[in-house]
Amino acid sequence: MKHRILPSPDSKRYGIERRDFLRYLAAVSAIPHIPEIASAETALNQSPKFSSTPFTLGVASGDPEPDGVVIWTRLAPAPLESGGGMVPEAVETRWEVAEDEAFSKVVQSGTAPAMPQLGHSVHVEVEGLEPHRWYFYRFHAGEESSPVGRTRTAPRRDVLAEKLRFAFTSCQHYETGYYDGYRHMSEEDLDLVVHLGDYIYEYETGTRGPRKHIGKECESLDGYRIRYAQYRSDEHLQTAHRLFPWLVTWDDHEFDNNYADLVSEEEGISPEAFLARRMNAYQAYYEFMPLRRRSFPQGPNMQLYRNCGWGRLANFHVLDTRQYRTDQPNGDHQKPMNENTLNPNATILGAKQENWLSGQLLQSASTWNILAQQVMVAPLNRGEGKEDARYSMDQWPGYEASRRRLLHFLNDRSIPNPIVLTGDIHINWVNDLQLDFQDPKSPLVGTEFVGCSLSSSGDGGNVIPEYDRAYRQNDFVKWHNTNRGYVSCDVTPLSWTSHFRVTPFVSKPGSPIETKASFLVEEGIAGAERIAG
User: pLDDT higher for 40 or 62?
Assistant: First the structure.
């Protein structure tokens, strides 16, 4: 990745005056939440007619709280066409939440506008629900009704829940594999699904696997919308969204591979064009995810870092390691850890998010403190021994000052039971997080569970010499695996168990599921122990 000098405010060399572009971005960023300003003066079509069901992309829910949850849908009778097959007008949708699947006891209902400005997506923040229980929900538009979704609320903040069962995954490249992992995930008795990024891949269609992307590399809002619609058209992904509330964050492919804040991995990309594309990508992400209005995009900015508590049992600190980071030192790839990685001004979280995280961790009253984030925290030496030590500059070791601050904070402030959930790398890893990775006797601070990809990189299970070598020469690594799948977690006040579920193949549909290994972390004792597999 290259450093670029920003043009002067009056530069026109990219076809637009930068001063005008930044003025435009400032205006866009001031726009309030569009559905909230839809009033009686807004012309809502209350009796729309559709040539076919507009609920082709199903329903979803997310960001559960003790008294409510977000429910989501999008009207799109032709989801893979520009505009989703909708005319550019606001449409009234009706929604219901009930205690039972037959909707004999509706507890909340209302209407919400499906606005063309937001691709006719609908986000309803349902309130007034009972804590720690399941509900059912559905939408109506005209004479059409959506599938019935199932969701649940979180426990009260002062309650120590007996258990939490959730699954996490990431990296679901549509082209390189089928989503049988979600089929098996949907058969588990889960409370929540956590997605750690790379929900879509922005690449143009290629020859990477059994399925093909529609269109060129995503840059326009319409291009990103169609890409999300193509991914969401997968029946197994739809089912997982329909059955469980989700907690989501992004990585890089929701926008552009290996980007860092305002810096593209490609040379010659103007900041204006980069920010315009980022604005499109962020808006499309919001449109397709069950997110609260606190995450509503403001031009090319969108705050995803947030907290989701599960009573006093668990606290999810959801992070964004892409939007605020400084440029990767020494390029994107594997390099030695040198003075650039130790630069105290380099950051992977940004000062505001880092300070927010510190505050959240200090005031957390939960037994388990979960960092749901994207890239590996453990400093995995992928070179050949100490003499040729090399680390990924795109992961936390590329921002070693940030990494050390985090681990020292967890240790010095005695943060209870830190567990890091990681995606990105397409390989399972179980890592003990040491305060000083160069000292084998250094205290253990926490545990990192790295999920493999759901489908990215195609069929796994193969031997990768580089990763086998890394497993052998990094003492903090307890296990690694190259299969595809997801991780299912059982959490109680006394223990945490991670089950590594794998699908032996993704290049064709119908893969079975296997539990490759299970690891246990006991409350109050840092580090994971293998108990099965």
Answer: 62
